[in-house]
Write a structure and sequence with these properties.
The chain is mainly alpha-helical. It folds into two domains: about 1-205, Up-down Bundle (Alpha-lytic protease prodomain-like), CATH 1.20.1510; about 215-295, Cation efflux protein, cytoplasmic domain (Alpha-Beta Plaits). The chain contains eight helices and three strands; from the N terminus they run H-H-H-H-H-H-H-E-E-H-E. Helix 2 (about 40-65) runs antiparallel to helix 5 and helix 2 (about 40-65) runs parallel beside helix 6. The two termini are about 35 Å apart.
């Protein structure tokens, strides 16, 4: 896909910078949160870490697509980032549990967080996420970057606005409980964000059906190709984020070789156009396929 190369390069570069900026902000916010005694800032810091994780995984997917496979790793390096995301997600659940525990304690005995630091970090977080979202949208041109990245950025922006609101409540009305309450809400947001990354990572590692695809729809689309009589032994899985692979058996009537090639070209074009599946292996057959010929995975029904 040479026509998309510049957009892919720009998107990958912006993703990398955005991930590094978000990671740097995580460190600054975590340190300021402890200094200001603000559970909301500490919770938002870990939420930013989970979003930096999502950005790094997406960036790694762009890098893996550009890296040539080796003779040992014939599918390339797509899943290295996915595995790292799953492990990192498990590690983030620990701080999230601590946030729930400390939040419950602070609700019973609220402290006095420094609202000035909360205002400064909350505003900085909103600005950072606005800049990252605009940069990604411009670089991706609305096509290359997964929608979940923008969803995570929107969640970060809402958390930043929540910190601003909590700081104002503490400053104007002295509602100190606003800080631990927001910390608990952000802890829930951290768990939701990390859980989403972990579930998708596990689906990829276990070669589950990629998100957004329905096996029945893909099968029906192939059956609609003229002269296709049957479709079976159909498998779709993810090599990594945004990289799908596909195999199936397609039965056609006895035809000259050139006609079979034409049908194969139609199937490949259909899969790329409608489902964005580009790594395709199709076995053409002119008679019923038996299990002994490899039509079924051992142990599968």
């Amino acid at each position: 896909m040479p026509a998309h190369a510049p957009a892919d390069h720009n998107t990958g570069w912006v993703l990398k910078v955005a991930a590094l900026a978000t990671l740097a902000f995580f460190g600054a916010e975590l340190a300021c949160g402890y200094y200001a005694r603000s559970l909301a800032l500490i919770g938002d810091a870990w939420h930013n870490f989970s979003d930096a994780l999502a950005l790094f995984v997406t960036w790694f997917a762009f890098q893996a697509q550009a890296r040539a496979p080796s003779r040992h790793r014939t599918y390339g390096y797509h899943r290295a980032g996915v595995l790292a995301a799953f492990v990192a997600g498990l590690l983030v659940l620990g701080p999230a549990g601590w946030l729930f525990y400390r939040g419950a304690q602070r609700l019973l005995a609220p402290g006095q967080p420094d609202f000035r630091i909360m205002l400064a970090l909350g505003a900085a977080g909103v600005v950072l996420n606005a800049v990252v979202s605009v940069a990604l949208r411009r670089a991706a041109r609305g096509e290359q970057c997964p929608p979940r990245v923008f969803l995570h950025m929107a969640g970060d922006a809402l958390a930043g606005l929540g910190i601003l609101l909590a700081a104002l409540l503490i400053r104007i009305w002295g509602l100190r409980a606003a800080d631990p309450l927001l910390g608990l809400l952000i802890a829930g947001l951290v768990v939701w964000t990390v859980w989403d990354v972990m579930v998708e990572s596990l689906d990829i590692l276990l070669e589950g059906l990629p998100r957004g695809l329905e096996l029945e729809q893909v099968e029906a689309a192939i059956r609609s190709v003229p002269r296709v009589q049957d479709v079976h032994d159909l498998h779709i899985w993810s090599l990594g984020v945004g990289a799908q692979a596909f195999t199936c058996h397609v039965r056609i009537p006895p035809l000259p070789f050139a006609d079979g090639e034409a049908i194969l070209d139609q199937v490949n074009a259909l899969l790329e156009r409608r489902f964005r599946i580009r790594h395709v292996t199709v076995q053409l057959e002119c008679q019923e396929c038996e299990a002994v010929n490899g039509c079924h995975i051992p142990g599968a029904r």
